[in-house]
Amino acid sequence: MATNAGDSNDLNWRGEFRDANREALFRRTMQAHDACQLRHALVIAAGLFLAFSLTDFSLLGSSPAFMVLLGMRATVATTLLLLALWVWRRPSLAQAPLPINLVCLLAVSGLLLTIPFRPEGTLTNLASTVAASMALYLFVPNRLPWMLISNAYLIGGFLIAMVIWSPLPGGVMVNSLMLLGFVNLLCWLTVSRIHRLQRAQFGSLLEERSNNRLLKNEIEKRTQLEQGLRHMARTDELTGITNRRRFFELAEQERRRAHRDGTPLSLCMVDIDYFKAINDVHGHAIGDLALTVVAARCQSALRESDIIGRYGGEEFVIALPLANLITAREVAERLREAVSLRPLEVNGVTLDLTVTVGISRVDDGETSIDPGLLRADRALYAGKEGGRNCVVATPHGPELVLLEGVPATLTPGAVRATASAAAPAAVPAGGPLPDRS
Ligand SMILES: Nc1nc2c(ncn2[C@@H]2O[C@H](COP(=O)(O)OP(=O)(O)OP(=O)(O)O)[C@@H](O)[C@H]2O)c(=O)[nH]1
Which parts of the chain span the membrane according to its record (predicted)? Predict the structure, then answer.
């Protein structure tokens, strides 16, 4: 979190951040701006330096003194333009004190050189010194100590040059000095204020960026939390598959789609055989593990578009879009085999897991999946009655009928589409027989 970077406590007498890192960051941020400002200042100064050749000429004519001044002006202007070009190529130079101050020194020296050559132009000399002083403060992106040094050199040089080559009456000299002093004070205060304002603005910018970052993090955290909550609200904690509520939402969507498109939708009720015995003999932890394994094995036998949910306890429910009873029977059979294919081995215990599956098809005229689920449950019940570890189908109504086109063994009141007649493998030796009633 950024502090109030523009507070006066954070700034030193130069109007810069006390924190060197923050000052470096500020200067890096300002680099392009400083480079642009310096380039413009150098080009304008070069133009002015050359332009004053005209006044030199009007005062000196084409004398040797004019030629010396012209040479000086050409040298200074060329140096200024070269630095402008260099800064254009390498903007970081705009903040390098050495080249800037060498060029300032040269320009100030050139300006002072005009005094011995044009001693009678007192007013012009004073005015150009004042203008140069202001430019050194306001247009050269220098640090304050360097500004003070170059201005001290300018004023000191002006005084010495005036005393030697163009002595003025005492009162005029004092006036000139006061004027220069006032200009310097004003410019110093202005520059300090600009420095402070720039840094205050930079501090606010940093603070705003930091707040934005915090806000972004908060939004990301909340989005993740929301996603987590949504996932929790839709998922069965133990098995990781869809929970009952979400299953009903998704299955109802599929029922509406099937109704609209005139496509089939089948339902399966899957129940682990003799699950109570697993709990009773091996404990709930292993029972939980068995539930998770069965859920995963069931899911592995399904397509991505199929919907599996935990109906409750050790019962699962599945919606099979685009599947008629024949397809549903094949899927259920695949699922039954996937569960019983290999035993579950845990902590030295070997469990032969099996499931019984009841399947039904949702009728075109039905306005919810409930009647279909009821039929699937009845088929499941029949499968339990008939020996477990099997798939039983019921297309319609209270009676269970033979699937069309599917070879099946008819059991009283039910179609055993596939059944393993073997003794239920999940029962541990001596384990109790289940009672579904
Ligand atoms: N470990 C565990 N057991 C559960 C969970 N939910 C339900 N059960 C148990 O599952 C058992 C279901 O027993 P029953 O309904 O008698 O069914 P069953 O023993 O599988 O017998 P059949 O279904 O007739 O083969 C009960 O003992 C429940 O306590 C659960 O989340 N974890």
Answer: 38-60, 66-88, 100-117, 123-140, 147-166, 172-191
Nearest CA to ligand 1 atom 29: 276
Report the CATH number at residue 286: 3.30.70.270
Q: Is 16 in the pocket of ligand 1 (CB under 6 A)?
A: no
Q: Would you say the CB of residue 276 lies under 6 angstroms from ligand 1?
A: yes
- 202 & 253 share domain: no
Residue identified by tokens 């294919």 is 341
Taking 50 as the pLDDT cut, the residues of the chain under it are 1-3, 5, 397-437
- Closest to 248 measured CA to CA, from 339, 144, 372: 372
Atom 14 (ligand 1) nearest CA: 276
Ligand 1 site, residue 213, Cβ cutoff 6 A = no
Q: pLDDT of 304-337, one tens digit each?
A: 999 999 999 999 999 999 999 999 999 999 999 9
Task: Judge if the beta carbon of residue 284 lies within 6 A of ligand 1.
Answer: yes
Residue 218, token pair as written in the block: 């908060």
13 — phi, psi (to 5°)?
-65, -20
- Dmax over CA atoms of the chain, in Å, equals 135
Same domain? 293 vs 412:
yes
* Residues 310, 245 contacting (CB under 8 angstroms): no
**Is 425 contained in some domain?**
no
* Residue range(s) defining the domain that contains residue 121: 8-212
Domain count, the chain: 2
How confident is the model over 176-189, as pLDDT tens digits?
889 999 999 999 99
Same-domain pairing of 322 and 198: no
Residues 201, 253: one domain?
A: no
**Contact 274 CB / ligand 1 (< 6 Å):** yes
